[in-house]
Amino acid sequence: MRKTTQLRVYTVREGLLDEWADKWRELIVPLRLEFGFEIHGAWLDRKRNQFVWALSYAGPESFAERNAQYWASPKRESMGLDPKEYLVETDVREVDALM
């Protein structure tokens, strides 16, 4: 199994950074963990109004396949959380660990 890690940088709509962080922590984190993702941390860059986090997946499916399953899940749909309401821009990078 190959481990894939992504660094995600989200630019959040003005005034919604803390609300996004709360929703992410309460709703997204538990479901991501349930789907076998590992979350390495999350950070707020208040100066740039950005939310930065890192997650990985090492399982029988590829990261893309598991991510698609996460998004298609009834639990994800029932959250009622549309990232487009919060995020202005997303930058997703696949990264390799040095340590």
Account of the 3D structure:
Helices cover 33% and strands 35% of the residues. With 99 residues, the protein is of the alpha+beta class. The chain has a single domain, classed as Alpha-Beta Plaits (2-Layer Sandwich), CATH 3.30.70. It has a 4-stranded antiparallel sheet, with helices on one face. The mean pLDDT is 96.
State the helix count: 3
The CATH topology label is: Alpha-Beta Plaits
Question: How big a fraction of the residues is strand?
Answer: 35-45%
Mean pLDDT: 96
CATH class: Alpha Beta
Give helix and strand order, one letter per element, not per position.
EHEEHHE
Supply Rg: 14 Å
List its traits:
single chain, 99 residues, alpha+beta, Alpha-Beta Plaits, four-stranded antiparallel sheet, 3 helices, globular
Could you give a quick summary of the protein structure above?
This protein is an alpha+beta fold and 99 residues long. It has 3 helices and 4 strands.
Topology:
Blueprint: E1 4-12, H1 17-34, E2 37-45, E3 50-57, H2 63-72, H3 74-78, E4 87-95
Antiparallel strand pairs: 1-3, 1-4, 2-3
